[in-house]
Amino acid sequence: MAVGIRTHDLRKVYSSVPPMAAGGGIVARTSARGSKQPAKEQIPALDGLSLEVHPGEIFCLLGPNGAGKSTTVGVLTTRVRPTSGQAWIGEHDVWKEQAQVKRLIGVVPQRANLDFSLTAREILVYHGAYFGLSSKIRNERADALLEKFKLTERGNQMVRGFSGGMMQRLSIARAMMHDPQVLFLDEPSAGLDPQTRILLWEIIREYHQAGKTVLLTTHNMEEADALCQRLAIVDHGRVIALGTPGELKASIPGGFLLRLRFANQTPQLIERLQSLAGVREVRAADGTGADVYADRGGSLISEIANSAASTGAELSDVHISEPSLENLFLHHTGRSLRD
Amino acid sequence: MNWKTFFAMLGRDAHVARRNAIQLFMQTFLQPLLFVFIFGKVMVGSGYMPEAYKSLLLPGIIAISMTFTGVWAVAMPLIAEFQWTREIEDRLLAPISVGWIAIEKVIAGMLQALVAGLVVIPLAWLVLGRGVAISMGTPLIFAVIILLVAAFSACGGLALGCSMDQQHIGLMFSLVMTPMIFFGCTYYPWSALKTFPILQKIVLVNPLVYASEGMRATLAPQFAHLPVAAVILALVFFDVLLLVVGLRQFEKKAVT
Ligand SMILES: Nc1ncnc2c1ncn2[C@@H]1O[C@H](COP(=O)(O)OP(=O)(O)OP(=O)(O)O)[C@@H](O)[C@H]1O
Ligand SMILES: [Mg+2]
Questions:
Q1: Cys bridge to A63: A67, A131, A179, B213, which one at CB 3.0-4.6 A?
Q2: Which sign does the torsion angle of CA B86, B90, B96, B100 carry?
């Protein structure tokens, strides 16, 4: 049975130790305690985050650096104690029923945390043992996962010498080792080459098809678009938009981009295009093409073709792209995701 | 309580210890054996120390070896794993409550300390040669004391490892371990401090004193030593204290 995820009004305020006390050694710290304790800086990471991920869904948290994605994952995986609010995995309160929750989840952290004293294969096998798998099953699964993540040849090497991408692959394999009902992936494709990223997407889809719930974070719109059934855009520790990729994209005005190519493009043509209803902006490119940002997509084509004909230009190529999550983010926050 | 997980984690630690056996061996035994050689062999052989010093030294060496091994075995991996490699996170996510992960570390440290204590006896004996008057009149009490010493070292490692930052490892050894060893009645019996009455009282806060005196009381009772009951009581007290502090610190470190 698939398991859902729920959070209610999560807040998390980190207090970071001031640099003087953090780096100054024991002596500085004790003397600081004795006299005037330097004020700790308060960093709000989550500010009333409420979410519901349906059982058996691929859900994505999208947001810029420092938005609170990893903190959310941390709270849901027992690693971060929320300042207030609640979180549930299935029926289990994450904070109060940690052992049961840990049994249900698999976690790929943003920063690799592989056991450096073990080989790749041992990491998988011991992980299986922590979850009580029998020796036969854990050996079989370890071999299958090494194969799946193309690490078989490296299986008996210490992970110390692994490349970043290889460590990332092994982290994902480890999280799948005990076949958890809910898989958390914190920026799983960071540091993966394009081919491996596609492989990972396939593996995630396949895992989802087996009836599992997947929550992943990313700041890559393409990834969110390609994988997720629903997504939440997070900024400053709050959900600022939630829905399917299609719904979210449809909610923004001027989200369409039409990339046009003309023979004999003229300045008049560009002016004409600008005056068409629903067109927000036209950018001419190298004399033969123009990028048109508009509220509508296909319905503009005939008007564009007419304008082209009337100025003596000929429309030779059109590419319409749907409203993107990038534009969506810009729309909601006034900032670009790629900042 | 999830025993499968617990034993799997112990298995992992045993596996890693086996893999690093030679390194661990050198780290644990080189220093005490050099000490045994210089003081027990060179100094005694040249007549600067009486022959009886050999038997006085050996129990202290056992106490030091065990303490060092236990503290080191628990504290060093914890410091590195919490701050730097974060490799403990995998175990923090295992289906077991966080406190048991700390207990597992303590058990693993105790086992290593026990091995160290039991191996250093014959090794030191070999180095010292003839003239070591060691006996085990009360094996049961010896077993109790050696277990309590192992627990003290591992719990101490837990408390230290979870309270120290990586950049303070050097400080930990120069400020905590070194004075503890020199004022730990390891190379001399507690009764030898009677000419320094104030110091003799102060060193009683040092748990290593009870470890060395306990070893001496059970292995070389011919020398004056603290009463066994006092030793056991004090060791139990320090075991519990360090375990409680260590668990608290561990749980604090385990979540952010
Ligand atoms: N251990 C910590 N101590 C202090 N502050 C922290 C800690 N962890 C996170 N923060 C702060 O909380 C905020 C949210 O961080 P978080 O890691 O959740 O962001 P994120 O969305 O995962 O970002 P990224 O895309 O960079 O991974 C940031 O301002 C960060 O500085
Ligand atoms: Mg993050």
A1: A67
A2: negative
b/e per residue, A80-92, with b = 16+ CB within 10 A?
bebeebbbbbbeb
Q: Are residues A168 and A240 in the same domain?
A: yes
Q: Whose CA is nearest to atom 7 of ligand 1?
A: A14
Q: What is the extent of the structural domain holding B224?
A: 3-254
CA gyration radius, chain B = 19
ipTM: 0.86
In which domain, by residue range, is A129 found? 5-14+48-244
Question: Cβ(A218) to ligand 1 under 6 A?
Answer: no
The verdict on A296 and A237 lying in the same domain is no
Instruction: Show which of A205, A224, A244 is a domain's final residue.
Output: A244
Number of H helices, E strands in chain A: 13, 14
How many domains, in total, are found in chain B? 1
Give chain A's domain count. Answer: 2
The reply to whether A121 and A191 lie within a common domain is: yes
Name the closest residue on chain A to residue B167, using Cα atoms: A25
- Residue to substitute in A13, A46, A49, A65 for testing ligand 1 pocket (most ligand atoms within 8 angstroms of CB): A65
Closest CA to B63 of B155, B138, B146: B146
Using a CB-CB cut-off of 8 Å, the residues of chain B touching A13 are none
Sign of CA dihedral B81, B85, B89, B90: negative
Scanning every residue of chain A, which has its alpha carbon at the shortest distance from the alpha carbon of B10?
A130
- The DSSP call for residue A229 is S
